[in-house]
């Protein structure tokens, strides 16, 4: 039987990979994109969303996760079997500048969607894009049992969404799950995140287009995996017999400094000659180490991250080198 999935944030990194995963499985995919006079659909423009094509199974809808009535209308119309709530203000620095907006988009959007599912009375399965940023100051490694100690408006908003997801599961018996994804990256990552910024910088410096890259804290430890693999974990969570929460991570920590080394080595450069510190990239509060233990996902969902951080850094840098070289 054909399933229908609704993806909020479909035009983002994870949304685009998820749509690519679901369409070949036979799903009809409905994606929510923020209404704007100029759409940023670059990551999904290769997927057929031509409304005039009778065979199209990918549909875009304008709307915002801050707009509850819009979500109710859309859910009633689409009647999705699965909802993936990926929309968020996901940049942590930005969340310090826009804490209230972050609460609305990354926090209470979950409540709006869960309440809409409950009100419309659909047997929809719900995926909440929870994040390792919720662990904040908690000691690494972190797993599903680690207490949440967020230190940013984004982490706090996501912690609220996490608890609302659990609350709707427990109070109303909804099939609602949290995927607690650690940092996951790709050539589709927004340019302001450190991995893409470094990959782009290394490629541009190697091509002689710039001399230096300006960064903040190089000591932070992260567990960076490949986003394309993480959406497989998201999907697997909604196919399980019982709803539950799972960490998705590689389990291996690296510092920002290590990531610099991987990217600059890929283009034959010494990063120490090209990277300068700038305090504008420091945050009011920093998370020192996020390292996930994804053994529950391996055991119960047969999900594992296969692409290591060094491989990911190389893959991202090569994509930037190719982009600078232009079409062949
Ligand atoms: O790439 P980042 O901005 O990722 P961060 O803060 O870990 O957040 C990402 O992962 C979270 C999961 O743990 C998600 F919830 C969140 O949505 C997002 O996807 O920064 C990584 C590290 C930080 O310690 C930061 O201080 O890199 C450090 N850093 C150093 N210089 C920098 C820079 N980060 C950015 N973005 N830009 C810099 O110039």
Outline of the structure:
The protein is an alpha/beta fold.
Can you walk through the features of this model?
By secondary structure, the protein is of the alpha/beta class. The chain folds into 2 domains: about 5-185 and about 225-250, NAD(P)-binding Rossmann-like Domain (Rossmann fold, 3-Layer(aba) Sandwich); about 195-220 and about 255-290 and about 305-325, UDP-galactose 4-epimerase, domain 1 (Alpha-Beta Complex). The chain contains 10 helices and 13 strands. It has helices at about 15-20, 70-80, 90-95, 100-120, 155-170, 195-205, 225-240, 255-265, 295-300, 310-325, and strands at about 5-10, 30-35, 60, 80-85, 125-130, 175-180, 185, 215, 220, 225, 245-250, 255, 275. It has a 7-stranded parallel β-sheet with strand order 3-2-1-4-5-6-11, sandwiched between helices. The chain has a two-stranded parallel sheet with strand order 7-10. Strand 1 (about 5-10), helix 1 and strand 2 (about 30-35) form a beta-alpha-beta unit. Helix 1 crosses helix 7. The longest helix is centred in the middle third of the chain and has 22 residues, at about 100-120. The model has no long low-confidence stretch (mean pLDDT about 95). The protein binds ligand G4F. Ligand G4F binds near residues 183, 194 and 217.
């Amino acid at each position: 039987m054909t399933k229908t999935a609704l993806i909020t944030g479909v035009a983002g990194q994870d949304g685009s990979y998820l749509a690519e995963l679901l369409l070949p499985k036979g799903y009809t995919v409905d994606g929510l994109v923020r209404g704007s006079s100029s759409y940023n659909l670059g990551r999904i423009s290769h997927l057929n969303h031509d409304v005039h094509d009778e065979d199209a199974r990918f549909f875009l809808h304008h709307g915002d996760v801050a707009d509850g009535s819009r979500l109710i209308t859309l859910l009633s119309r689409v009647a999705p079997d699965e909802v993936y709530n990926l929309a968020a203000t996901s940049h942590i620095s930005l969340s310090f500048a826009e804490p209230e907006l972050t609460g609305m988009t990354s926090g209470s959007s979950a409540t709006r969607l869960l309440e809409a599912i409950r009100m419309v009375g659909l047997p929809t399965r719900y995926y909440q894009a929870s994040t390792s940023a919720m662990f904040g100051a908690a000691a690494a490694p972190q797993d599903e049992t680690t207490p949440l100690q967020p230190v940013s408006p984004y982490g706090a908003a996501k912690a609220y969404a996490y608890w609302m997801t659990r609350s709707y599961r427990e109070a109303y018996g909804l099939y609602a799950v949290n995927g607690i994804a650690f940092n996951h990256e790709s050539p589709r990552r927004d340019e302001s995140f450190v991995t893409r910024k470094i990959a782009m910088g290394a490629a541009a410096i190697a091509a002689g287009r710039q001399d230096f890259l300006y960064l903040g804290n190089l000591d932070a430890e992260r567990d960076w995996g490949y986003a394309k693999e993480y959406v497989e974990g998201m999907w697997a969570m909604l196919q399980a017999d019982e709803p539950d929460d799972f960490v998705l991570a590689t389990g291996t920590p690296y510092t920002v400094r290590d990531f610099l080394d991987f990217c600059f080595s890929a283009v034959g450069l010494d990063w120490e000659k090209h990277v300068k510190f700038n305090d504008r990239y420091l945050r009011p509060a920093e998370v020192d180490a996020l390292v996930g233990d994804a053994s529950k996902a391996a055991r119960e969902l047969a999900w594992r991250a296969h692409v290591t951080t060094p491989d990911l850094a190389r893959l991202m840098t090569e994509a930037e080198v190719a982009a600078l070289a232009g079409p062949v």
